[in-house]
Amino acid sequence: MEQLIQTIVKPLVDHPEEVRIEKDENASRIVYKLSVHPEDMGKVIGKQGRVAKAIRTIVYSAANSHHKKKTFVDILD
Predict the structure, then answer these.
(1) Three-class SS state of 46
(2) CATH number of the domain where residue 64 is located
(3) Which of 10, 28, 47, 48 is the most buried (most CB within 10 A)?
(4) What residue numbers bound the domain in which 13 lies?
(5) CA distance 53 to 57
(6) Of all helices (H) and strands (E), which one includes residue 2?
(7) What's the CA gap between 52 and 55, in Å, rounded?
(8) Which CDD domains does the protein's record reference (predicted)?
(9) Which residue pairs, CB below 8 angstroms and at least 24 apart, start in 65-71?
């Protein structure tokens, strides 16, 4: 999943080298914490959160077919 998130996010940002993804997993869920350069936050979130929602939709769809755990994507400041 980390590779999928990177594949989606890196072309969107001006500082692709600063894209970081942390995975936090427990028995019932997986949380991917995405952090980008502060100047790129708007590009990742998009107008009214549309880009962030699209990223989450793609990751949730891929994760549901791959994992049996609930999957979340958090965008960190």
Answers:
(1) coil
(2) 3.30.300.20
(3) 10
(4) 2-76
(5) 6
(6) helix 2-9
(7) 5
(8) KH-II_YlqC-like
(9) 66/1, 67/30, 69/25, 69/28, 69/29, 69/30, 70/28, 70/29, 70/30, 71/1, 71/29, 71/30, 71/31, 71/32
